[in-house]
Design goal:
Layout: E1 15-18, H1 20-23, H2 29-41, H3 44-47, E2 51-53, H4 78-88, E3 92-98, H5 114-124, E4 128-132, H6 142-155, E5 161-164, E6 183-185, H7 205-215, E7 226-228, H8 241-245, H9 256-268, E8 273-275, H10 284-290, H11 293-299, E9 308-311, E10 316-323, E11 326-333, E12 339-344, E13 357-361, E14 367-370, E15 373-378, E16 383-390
Parallel strand pairs: 1-2, 1-8, 2-3, 3-4, 4-5, 5-6, 6-7
Antiparallel strand pairs: 9-10, 10-11, 11-16, 12-15, 13-14, 13-16
Helix pairs in contact: 5-6, 9-10, 9-11
Bound molecules: alpha-D-galactopyranose (GLA).
Protein name: Glycoside hydrolase family 27 protein
Family: Belongs to the glycosyl hydrolase 27 family.
Keywords: Glycosidase, Hydrolase, Signal
Length: 391
């Protein structure tokens, strides 16, 4: 780091939209403009979703003769004009590259040309870089490759959020902050399914929740540096770009219960919230889910603490997250039948010792009081989540 300026970025988990899950490699300039417009029209921008990130496949298959990245013919007005379009809507603009010779889809990437590309990004008005792990690595370790881009971004005269996409392979939570990262993928790619088949591409929602419970990375997580369980799949299904491109066997869209669990867990984990759906056809249910103020307040709580499990191992799970004025408690049903799940404030991440607690159901807004006992009835694969405040 040349100074402390980049540490002022991403004080809460970044929120926005990314093109990959909906459009995969077919993304065009028109899709990005439509997404920016839709963020405004749907109220998502007002709710806090601010980054518009173009994922893989925006670049031409050849660099210029000096090694600079060039936009593909699907971005006819170029990246500076697209950044302007996004900025004109009070949104921020993101691009993608890879810490290797090529991107995951085989386009030119940034290893060995970090400074040159960081200068391009800054000149175009880029506010966020997602930096993947594909291509030839020239024998270099991940930490070295990611540090090279971190230094390049810190050297340019623009604030750029640095999103490390290393899939959690080399425990990036141990070094992500120190190479200038503001978030780092902790897991493999999330697909639009509850569980993935072990022999197919990616992880399902429940697989990622299991992985986040297993990796013990919560201590690294907080303002300025976030574990990233991957972009949201709410609104996606069999026909989404990623499902088709990666040939994922997606038989049906996620159910409402599965979508609630997906969003509840990402907010409880204080995860970056990057929407991955086509915003021009977002359902009312999904829009209301993604703009639930009570859930977003848990995700964006200023302490930036990652939620962790208090009870696992059977079909009734309890997870909690300390908040500035209390805590959030999630009750998750992994089984096939409705069940009541109960706990007590003394067993979860809520400040103990108060005589009374106020409880608010984050789905319904219903409020009640308790001396400490908490119990919720939960549908299969669903998650009840409450905010608990002493006094
Ligand atoms: C990897 C990343 C994804 C996406 C694709 C693009 O799989 O993990 O998030 O960026 O590459 O090719």
């Amino acid at each position: 780091m040349t100074d402390d300026r980049p540490r002022q970025l991403a004080r809460t988990p970044p929120m926005g939209w990314n093109s990959w899950n909906a459009f995969s490699c077919d993304v065009t300039e028109a899709d990005i403009r439509a997404a920016a417009d839709a963020l405004v029209d749907t109220g998502l921008r007002e709710a806090g979703y601010e980054y518009v990130v173009v994922d893989d496949c925006w670049m031409a298959s050849e660099t210029d003769s000096d090694g600079r990245l060039q936009p593909s013919a699907d971005f006819p007005n170029g990246m500076a004009a697209l950044a302007d379009y996004v900025h004109d809507r009070d949104l921020k603009f993101g691009l993608y590259s890879s810490a290797g010779s090529h991107t995951c889809q085989g386009y030119p990437a940034s290893l060995g040309r970090e400074r040159l590309h960081a200068e391009q990004f800054a000149a175009w008005g880029v506010d966020y870089l997602k930096y993947d792990n594909c291509g030839d690595h020239a024998g270099r370790e991940a930490v070295d490759r990611y540090a090279a881009m971190g230094e390049a971004l810190a050297s340019v005269d623009r604030d750029i959020v640095y999103s490390i996409c290393e899939w959690g392979e080399n425990a990036p939570w141990e070094w992500g902050r120190n190479v200038g990262g503001h978030l780092w993928r902790a897991t493999d790619d999330l697909v639009a399914k509850w569980r993935a088949n072990p022999d197919e591409f990616g992880l399902g929602i429940a697989d990622v929740i299991d992985r986040m419970a297993a990796i013990d990375a919560a201590a690294a997580h907080g303002p300025g540096g976030w574990n990233d369980p991957d972009m949201l799949q709410i609104g996606n299904g069999p026909d989404s770009g990623q499902s088709e491109h990666e040939a994922v066997d997606v038989q049906r869209p996620l159910t409402k219960a599965e979508r609630r669990s997906h969003f509840a867990f990402w907010c409880l984990l204080a995860a970056p919230l990057m929407i991955g759906a086509d915003l021009t056809s977002l359902s009312t249910f999904d829009r209301e889910l993604l703009t639930n103020e009570r859930l977003l307040a848990i995700d964006q709580d200023s302490l930036g603490i990652q939620g962790t499990p208090d009870r696992r191992g059977d079909d009734a799970e309890v997870w909690s997250k300390r908040l500035r004025d209390g805590g959030a408690v999630a009750f998750h049903n992994r089984g096939d039948a409705e069940r009541e799940i109960s706990t007590h404030v003394s067993a979860v991440g809520v400040p103990a010792g108060a005589d009374r607690y106020r409880v608010c159901d984050c789905w319904t807004g219903t409020e009640w009081e308790t001396g400490g006992s908490l119990a919720m009835t939960v549908e299969p694969r669903d998650t009840a989540i409450v905010r608990v405040t002493p006094g």
